[in-house]
Amino acid sequence: MSPSKKTTRPAPSGNGSKPRNTRAPKALKKSRTRSPEPASRPAKDSPDSSFLSTLGEGIAPYPLREGESYMNAAQKEHFQRILTTWKQDLMEEVDRTVHHMQDEAMNFPDPNDRATQESEFSLELRTRDRERKLIRKIDEALLKLETDEYGYCERCGIEIGIRRLEARPIATQCIDCKTIEEIREKQLSG
Ligand SMILES: [Zn+2]
């Protein structure tokens, strides 16, 4: 019957509709002169993206799929897990501190030792206070998760973003609003 003609088209010039990747010429350097940006300013309590690996046994970053809707059930579950694990870690830490102080109390009759111990204690108390505040913020975040408010900037309403939230699960503002706030605070205090 018909000959096994596999209709191999004579390829016309070019291949298909893919636009050629026009390489940007090297002369495209824009005003990239001075202003060496402080790339990684050691911001106080902002954990980096490896923060997740420090939680519990470690939590893997969320495998984002293309076109997936923001704060869908899987994502909410992911952040609930992050927040509850973090909270548990902190509560254990608070417990340890309290027990440590109870164990050590009254063990130092020597005034010098006592002084050392007291400054040690005040440091621990401050740490514990910080942990308590964090736990409160985590609770607020968990509540927001329940009411579908989690993950949106409280100032402008846009999505805070999965990766930013993974680095800072209690973030309540998008990076832009946060930056503006920080600048404003600096101006006020400076
Ligand atoms: Zn915002």
Explain this structure:
With 190 residues, this protein is mainly alpha-helical. Among the domains are: 69-150, DksA, coiled-coil domain (Four Helix Bundle (Hemerythrin (Met), subunit A), Up-down Bundle); 151-190, no CATH class. It is built from four helices and no strands. It has helices at 73-104, 111-146, 162-167, 175-189. Zinc ion (ZN) is lined by residues 153, 155-156, 158, 173-174, 176-177.
Ends apart, CA distance between termini: 89 Å
CATH superfamily of the domain at 69-150: DksA, coiled-coil domain
CATH topology of the domain at 69-150: Four Helix Bundle (Hemerythrin (Met), subunit A)
Based on CA inertia axes, which overall geometry fits?
Answer: globular
The structural class is: mainly alpha
CATH structural architecture of the domain at 69-150: Up-down Bundle
Number of distinct helices: 4
Taken as a percent bin, the fraction of beta residues is under 5%
Into which percent range does the helicity of residues fall?
Answer: 40-55%
Q: What is the H/E string?
A: HHHH
What Rg is obtained from the alpha carbons, in whole angstroms?
Answer: 27 Å
Number of strands: 0
Give the low-pLDDT segments: 1-8, 10-18, 22-47
CATH class of the domain at 69-150: Mainly Alpha
User: Main β-sheet: number of strands, strand sense, barrel status?
Assistant: none
Mean pLDDT: 80
